[in-house]
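*** Backbone structure tokens ***
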Amino acid sequence: MNQRLEKNMCDLPDAVANCEVDDLRERAKRHLDPALQYACKSWHKHLVDGDTVRTPAIASALRRFLEKKFLFWLEVLSVLGAAREAVDALDVAAKWLEASPTLDLVIDCFRFVMKFFEIIGASCPHIYHSALPLCPRESIVRGLYEPHARPLTRIVHGLPNSWESTIAAAAFPSEVHTVVWSPCSRFIAISWGGQPTTIAILDGVTLERITTLESPLDTLGRTELLAFSRDARLLTWYGLHPGKFISWDLQTGGLVSTIALDQPKRYPSITYSACGTMFAVLIRDDATFTVFICGVLVGTYTYSHSAEGRPLEIWTHGGCLRFATIDSGSITTWEVAFASPHAPTPVESLPVPDNFCPSGIFRFHPTSSRLALPARGSVIVWDARDSKFLLESTDVNYEAYTSISFSSDGRFFACEVGDLGINLWKESPTGYTFHRRLLSNTGVFGRVLVSPNGGSVIASDGPVVQLWHTSDSVTSLSDASTLTFQRSVNSFILGFSPDGALAAVTRMKDKTVVVVDLKSGIARQTIDTDMEVYAAGVSGSSVVVVGEGKIVTWNLPVENRVLNPRANVNDSVLTTKFNHPPVPNSRRAALASPGLHHVAMVEWYGFSGSRLHLYNVPTGQCLASVEVVSDAYPWFTLNGREVWSISSRHGAHGWKIIEDSESDIAPLEYLGSNIHSPSGFPWQSSCDYKVTNDGWVLSPSGKRLLWLPPNWRPDKEDRMWSGRLLVLLDGGLLEPVILELEE
């Protein structure tokens, strides 16, 4: 590792967060004169000043600045708490420049700032400890500044080659429930967690958390709805339990009102009046729906209107409330004044496509009267006013939760296409034409949302929210068409050699195993196993792979005369079939013991339970079978003499393997439950390293060694420790990440 301890511009202590430096303001005043502070925060404003003429000399000066002073500039902004200025400055510069090598540099710098925005703002020293070492291999910034890196962690394996498709990502402590844009596209409201739910407002460009809202602890349950007022001054939350609408003033953070509605509470949608003093909410029951009009400032609802039918959307039209209903023959638009007690009246009836069946997911765009719906294997956009199809795409991996979204003006339309990512279409004279595919390292689930102004797309996947740009001005270096990654819901599999020198890695149920030299990070061998892999292990010169009903062994080459030599099933030296094969269609997880003497496999049978099987590698004999909890994983101690069933929620159960037993039925001696091996569980470090919820890897003394980007923060069950090695095995990564930590 590079151990040079070069000082930063403000002489901050090594490996600290800015908030830990008590005299940060004083250091900034001492080392950064006011003129430098102003120049760092404001140069881009002069670039687009009306008196500034675009000349080659200015472009050349900008290039020299980014080539020589880029990271020093970020240091200043970090210390001043002004990292957001870097985003604005580089965005301005990218739009100001014409196509040129300087533009490519600006775009790469922009990607660097967006990828590492969180750490740039949090820690000036970790620009060099974390951001620069984690920069992709092919990044221009890395090529220019790599000699300045001061890593406290060696990335053995898994450093990406190029920037991913996402512009920004943010991770949260638990699964994200709801995400919504503000009408001005400047803010994003998000909720996550258990009891109570946490609600935060994010910057719509960087996903930086601006504020967290205080909520009544006895009222907030799982979020069903979040909505901004039209001026983004108010935010309203709705939860299925206990069925309350809670509103906050976002300028003060104070609670405005709580409105309880003792009515059916399914799939609500909401719209604010133009004046922001009322909102209307549509709540669906099985065969009917009700529209409630509420006074947000007074905290009561004044009117309600109930009707039969399938409602589509609810929106504000001038001073009135409008909503649309659909049946097999038409779409009907209804209108009622916000302050009127009278029943809604129909104002327009529009046709639907022939043979249309009103079921499934719909999106109705009120301004253009366009109806979008995914069907099995396809998605369509129907122009109800002109009675024609604007889009008929079959490139959709349809699921019941497939998500679709329009921008406010209808120019952009997005649809989740399963494992392939998100397809984005743009309006054209003939309908919608394919614009680009948005890919994700972590996959895309949850609701996909195009921003109201059409400039960005967000989507949530578990605890991670990701953001893409719809334009190409600052994303041309990461065109999604150049990426070949396809998401898998399965995690990676990794097996260390007993001496810690090698690791066998693969994606669960993949057919290729790579043996990595952990000292050099170079692939020692790639094996095409010709079977779905459930476990892989390496010891000495042998590699063992567990597949469907068999165990296959390969020998590693004595010398690496060819870089990353490949082997296939014909090169294997031993194939052993299980005498007790796994149950078909069961889910399973397997692990080879450190010395490759045994294989432990847990099979999940759903409600009928789970069992752990212990197999002998040379013979395939099932030596023992014991019942375990449903979410357990197998694990061996480092000496290979104990096998455990481990679960982060239900604890652990251990068995000693009786080496000298003559029995082929029960060579296991039960050791008890919730016991702790001296070497720790796979997700616990035996050397007392820790990973915090906000992405910091800490040394035993608490030193901040590395900041993990959001897509490098898997659940603890998807982390593995071995001495000073930390492995990240979440299925959203392009490949497993192996890190060697500073002692």
